[in-house]
Amino acid sequence: MTDKFYEFFCPVKVIAGKAALEHIPYELSGLAAKRPMIITDKGVRAAGLLDPVVSACEESGLDIVSIYDDVPPDSSKAVVRDIAGIYRSEKCDSIIAVGGGSAIDTAKAVNILVSEGGDDIAKYSGAGVLKHPLKPFFVVPTTAGTGSEVTAVAVIADTEKHVKLPFTSSFLLPNAAIIDPRMTLTLPPHITAATAMDALTHATEAFTCMAKNPLSDAYATAAIKKITGNLLKVMDNPKDADGRLELAQASTMAGIAFSNSMVGLVHALGHATGAICHLPHGLCMSLYLPYVLEYNLETIREPLGELLLYLDGADVYAATPASRRAEAAISAIRRMRDALYKRCELPRTLKETGKVLESQLDDIARAALDDGAIMFNPKEVSLDDAKAVLARAWA
Amino acid sequence: MLAKRIQPMFFQARRLYVELMFQVMGRALQAVSEIDETVQQEANALPEGFLFEMMVMPDGARLIVEHTGNGRFRYLGDSAPRAVDLSIQFKHIAHAFLVLSFQEKTSVAFANDRMLVDGDISRAIRMTRILNRLEAFILPKLIAKRAVKEYPENIHLPEKLLNAARIYLKVATNFVETVKA
């Protein structure tokens, strides 16, 4: 009897492409929602990204009842409580998150409070605590990397206890993710590069880590193909709306892949580096990806070799002997990083970031060992192993 | 027909096996924390009074250990004096049996979503490392390789045999003391 097993779940309606934002009023009406609240951050508002969302709704006679635009980069319990208070006082009945990871996570947490009641979000922390569907919830991502629009998790800081509260439930998933190329057209080059490398890492780890499965594999490979085919084109021509849409879709597909097959050591190191050195997540992913693939190489040779087809195309794949494809896949990722460095100086080593001290590497290694993602890395990681990977990523 | 008759016996045997393994693991966790420095270092990062539970959902067999300080665990049986801090929960007794009979590695069981973690994930990772080290000591290498992601190369045979003997002796003593009490 086979010993294979997997689960796959993604009930999020994906609405993607030209004039996708204009579908929001119809989709909300389908859920009997008439009084939406927008949750976003100041950067999104300043970039003018709220305007097309608001006007798309108003044109259909749907008023946005409230806009909260002060979500900080690391959202906290107090922020969630305050937004939930506004939602209740304005008698809203649905939430539209417009932004990146922080705005989306905050909106997920607000949705818990306004649906379940109470003011203390910490009460709902953990896995499987939520037992009922929440209020109608839409997500409009403004970066193409996190995949938060299709993940069933949120993380909120408890600033009093100095811990991060994780929330895991399929009820956190939005009813719909709206992928509109207008939302990412103005992303600056280094954020475009870092977030796309974040998505590439999601897909690569999803395809090579322990919980990989046939369905997540399909999403992961399709995402990688879209990223390698469009990232440099978009870097050279930021107004390429088709390329932007491809990257945004790739991010969502990579999000679907990794939320069903999890991630590994790249994320464990990235989370630790983000917490200790305050480096952006996407940058950490780009930085560690080749070094971790080299560390895992003998455990993931076969799936990594398969990825060469999506990273470098059919000609290169066919011309590379099967025994060398895994190394060639890592080389393709390194070439992508070099090309991004040339275009926007996206750092390739910890030293190039200028924000990490060599003396911090031991702390990063120790923190990475306790990160949940390490459980799904295909190869066991000891403290010395983590230190060795960090030493290679240093310079 | 015969299969239908045997099935209840199999279910009963499986339940008894899981209950017995939890009792052995709980006592072995206490024992390994008394003799192994690496386990003590790992456990020392947990707060004093920290309660760890492994159980079968919804209300099946369970083991509970408490960190009493200095990296030492105490096996508390199947009932906790207060709410546990970390609970690793098998979704079904069949999943617990797969892991406890070494047909499925703990890490694979996590990857296959056989278990839920209720509590701090980083502490769950730490407890998994401790359980892996325990299994590497008390199981023959061939079986331990089926239980852990990677058998630790730095555990050599004399150390393994000596520690396994000490752990089993402590487990047996604890069983006897429990029966006497």
Could you give the count of β-strands of chain A?
Answer: 9
Reported by name, the CATH topology of chain B is Nonspecific Lipid-transfer Protein, Chain A
The CATH homology group name of the largest domain in chain A = Dehydroquinate synthase-like - alpha domain
Biggest β-sheet of chain B: count, sense, barrel?
5 strands, mixed
Radius of gyration of chain B: 16 Å
Q: If classified by CATH, what would the architecture of the largest domain in chain A be?
A: Up-down Bundle
Task: Report the β-strand fraction of chain B as a percent range.
Answer: 5-15%
Helix-strand sequence of chain B: HHEEEEHHEHHH
CATH architecture label name of chain B: 2-Layer Sandwich
Tell me the count of domains of chain A.
2
Q: Mind telling me the C-alpha Rg of chain A?
A: 21 Å
Characterize the main sheet of chain A: 6 strands, parallel
Provide a short characterization of the protein structure.
The complex is a heterodimer of chains A (395) and B (181). By secondary structure, chain A is α/β, with parallel strands linked by helices. Chain A has helices at 24-30, 42-46, 50-59, 77-89, 101-116, 189-208, 214-236, 241-261, 265-277, 281-312, 314-319, 325-344, 350-353, 361-369, 383-394, and strands spanning 13-16, 36-39, 66-68, 94-99, 126-127, 137-141, 153-158, 163-168, 176-179.
